[in-house]
Every structure is written in C-alpha cells, then in structure tokens.
Write a structure and sequence with these properties.
The protein is built from three helices and eight strands, in the order αβββββαββαβ. With 191 residues, it is α+β, with helices and mostly antiparallel strands. A hairpin with a 5-residue loop joins strand 6 and strand 7 (128-135). Helix 1 packs across helix 2.
Length: 191
Amino acid sequence: MDYNAINTVTAALKALLEAALDPLGTGVQHVFVGPLDDTAGDKLNLHLFLYRLAVNADLRSTDHIVASATPNQPPTIYRSSLPLDLYYLLTVSTKGSTDELGDLTILGQAMQALNDAPVLSGASVKNETARITLDPVGTDEMSRVWTLFPTANYRTSVVYLVSPVWIDPAVPQTVGTPVVEEPHLVGVLGD
C-alpha cells in the first residue's frame, strides 16, 4: 500500500464492524473512528480508536512482494517497505448509556464479527492482506490508554492488533528479466 495505508485499513475495519451492527444495510452509522472524548461520537454505539502504531520487527528486513492483478505478470517487489502493527481500542460508546447490558451485547456483536472475519483482504485494502487479532492487554496498559481521556467515563474495552500494514516506497524496485541462457564460453584459450 502507499502512504494512505493506515487510513485504508481503518476504513476497512470500520466497514466490517458497520456491516455486523447493521446487517440489514439500513445505512445507520454505528461506529465512530476517533478519540474516546470526542463528542462527535457520542451518538454512536462503538468507538474505534487507533491508539498505537509500531514497526513489525519480524518483517522489517523483508521485501514486500505484491502479486500482480493481471495474470502472467511478475509481482511487484518493494524493498525498504515499512511494515506496521496497528493497535485499535474498541469500546462501547462513552455517552453515558444506562443500558449496560445492551452496550455489552453490541460489543459482543463487534467481537463476533472480527472473530468470524479475522482477515482484511480484497479491494477494500488494495488487495493486501492484514490479520485481525484480539490482543490480550493487561490492566496496566488499558489504564494508560484511558488516562489519555480524563473526561471520558471508563467503558468495557478490548484491543485488536491489525498486522501487517505495509507502507511501501513511492517507487517499486525494478526486477530484471530472468536469465534464460548463460553466455559464458568454457574451454581452453588459444595462444
């Protein structure tokens, strides 16, 4: 992907959650993308907040090979791509709902959707593949995240890791054609 990879993956994750919470496709928005204390999200059921980005150390020295969409075309190879791990906080609305059981049901629906479709792939993520994994963060890390929002009431939350998300260089590495014959001559040189 390009410089817009983080935005693309976040939009695809939001669309997946929206489809789970609006199975009839009524177009009602349920997921707010942004910080927990943003009042623009008060009317929606879930907050999706990208709270941490990290370089995926295991993939840092790996070439990013992207298969061609056209048959019989060589793949595109990106060297020096930036593989990222994106950490999202998924929480029920901080609007101060009095229906805690209903909010937990909505969170359960979202978790079920992410468990049922644990991979983002296809056109929504520019034919890349990123895995969605429930990240079992401890109470210390969760407390640190919530201290970023002193005006927001704590709500039940879970963290999801989406990885890898590639930010490729603007220009791919050119790949030469394969060697089909070796032009070296073997034998004794004459005097």
